[in-house]
Amino acid sequence: MLDAVREIQLPVLALLLLLGAVSKLTGSDTRGGASLLPVRARPWFTRAHGAVEVLVAGALLVLPGQVGDAGRMWAAALFAGGVVALFVLRRRDPEMGCGCFGGLSTTPIGWRVIARAAVFAVAAAATVGVDGSGLGVLGGLTGWHAAVIAAEAALLAALSPELGELTLRLARRERCDTRAVPMRRTLARLLLSDVWRASTAVVTSRRPLDVWRQGCWRFLRYAGRRDGRPVDVVFGVPLDGRRSAVRAAITDAETGATLSVFESRRTVQTPRFRREELRDVAGISTLGR
User: Fold this and answer.
1) How many helices (DSSP H) and strands (DSSP E) are in the chain?
2) Are residues 10 and 138 in the same domain?
3) How far is residue 32's CA from residue 176's CA, in Å, rounded to a whole number?
4) How confident is the model at residue 268 (pLDDT cuts 50, 70, 90)?
5) Do 242 and 111 belong to one domain?
6) Is the per-residue pLDDT at 279 higher than 70?
């Protein structure tokens, strides 16, 4: 059983390395370790990294015994270095993706990704001393090998946030945090919400003081007045369809203290407002972020 676990790592790790290499060599994403380098060097590093992954994967597949141990140690070093790089990247920029599989690895680095790299490093180290090659293992698959592959696939699925991104792409859907959503649609949803109607007595500005996007939300900040004091009224309008509720927060303009936080109780259909109607009610004609 233990021998089967060690042997099957050769083709499994080779496949994973090839997938990572293809994503790096064919894409333009420079997340991950490349982001630690100067901007001009990042594309070159990403492609060099992909080329090294191809070479190491080839060694795992075709080189047997002691000759192949050099490639297996390279694989272990590659994954162990990845663990260190992930810790550094996570501290430097918690919102950055690992870049492990190119543009698919956009989810912020978390413990799942770090644990996955550590599992790969241990698996690669375990292959040192295996007599055969990866292709030889594939040619003589046994039931134990198949059982290990199934268990490892389940583990990798649990540790791989890229599967969600891949599912979205296969379904030809854009991520809500990168999807282009017209300001007109955001305004229509805001104006029909309970939150907007409950805030009209507080909002004093015709135009928002600021508009910005963060993740799957668009935020609009209006000036207001409550109990004789100036306040900021910030509306959060979700960009991920109609299930999430519109939210708002009222904060003291001088101290920044939060006075109220509330959200819409119900969701309504968004009709087709004319641009002039939206401009008259919300005072937005030039902000389109």
Assistant:
1) 10, 5
2) yes
3) 22
4) very low
5) no
6) no
128 and 198 assigned to the same domain: no
Q: What is the pLDDT of residues 208-258, one digit of tens each?
A: 899 999 888 899 999 999 989 999 999 999 887 555 788 999 999 888 888
Residue 128 counted as domain residue: yes
Q: Is residue 274 part of a domain?
A: yes
Give the C-alpha separation, 24 to 17, whole Å.
Answer: 11
Residue 288 belongs to a domain:
no
Q: Is 215 left (phi over 0), alpha (psi -120 to 50) or beta?
A: left
Is it the case that residue 29 has pLDDT exceeding 80?
Answer: no
- 119, 123, 124, 127: CA torsion to nearest 10: 170
- Residues 97, 37 within the same domain: yes
Please classify residue 197 by burial: count the beta carbons closer than 10 Å to its beta carbon, then call 0-12 exposed, 13-18 middle and 19+ buried. exposed
pLDDT in tens, 45-68: 888 998 999 999 999 999 998 889
Q: How many domains does the chain have?
A: 2
10 Å CB burial of residue 24 (0-12, 13-18, 19+) is: buried
For 181-191, the pLDDT digits (tens) are: 888 888 888 88
Q: How far is it, in rounded angstroms, from Cα 232 to Cα 159? A: 41
Domain ends where: 140, 170, 200? Answer: 170
Residue 68: name the closest of 79, 77, 80, 56 by CA: 56
| Domain match, 224 and 275 both | yes
Query: Residues 118-138: what's their mean pLDDT?
Result: 92
Statement to judge: residues 9 and 41 lie in one domain: yes
Name the phi and psi angles at 78, rounded to 5.
-65, -45
- What range does the domain containing 214 cover? 183-282
Structural domain includes residue 256: yes
